[in-house]
Amino acid sequence: MKTFALFWLLALPLFAGLLRFDHIETTVLLKKGGSPVNVEISLTLQGRDLKESEIQLMDVIQTAVGSLWAETLVTAAGKEKFKKMIVALADKEYGIEVDFVYIENIRIETCTLERLRELLNSVRR
Predict the structure, then answer these.
(1) Nearest to 96 by CA among 61, 123, 65, 70
(2) What is the C-alpha separation between 46 and 94, in angstroms, rounded?
(3) 69 burial level (CB within 10 Å; 0-12, 13-18, 19+)
(4) Nearest Cα to 12, choosing from 97, 92, 83?
């Protein structure tokens, strides 16, 4: 019986599915000055029955990204906090069990539209 239970526990991750989110674009704020910057993130989530909950998981990801500063997203500790936040929010808000979050890419674009407008306005004067 112990062998069966051990086999079952080790086999559970094999039934987990992957759901990939490519090029999620959103805006976050810089801690210094509070100006907006564009962020592009690509993630892969691992868990059970994730395909059926794709829209809810996109909401969870957007909520988690929006609650962090841009500077936090580029540090190792910030990335771990972001991953844990996704797992916790998915479970709390929608009852979705996400086992792991893999960050494939995070790109922060500091030259936002507002800065370009300011630059154009200063050139016109």
Answers:
(1) 61
(2) 16
(3) middle
(4) 97
pLDDT, position 6? 47
Against a cut of 0.70, is the pTM above it?
yes
Model pLDDT for residues 36-82, shown as the tens digit of each residue: 889 999 999 999 989 999 999 999 999 999 999 999 998 999 999 99
Q: Work out the angle at residue 48's Cα, subtended by the Cα atoms of residues 11 and 90, and round it to the nearest 5 degrees.
A: 135
Lookup: tokens for 5: 């239970």
Please name which of 35, 36, 40 lies closest in space to residue 21, comparing C-alpha atoms. 40
Q: Which amino acid is at 124?
A: R
Half-sphere exposure (CA, 13 Å, Cβ side) for 120?
7
Helices (H), 1-125: 2-11, 54-66, 70-73, 76-89, 113-124
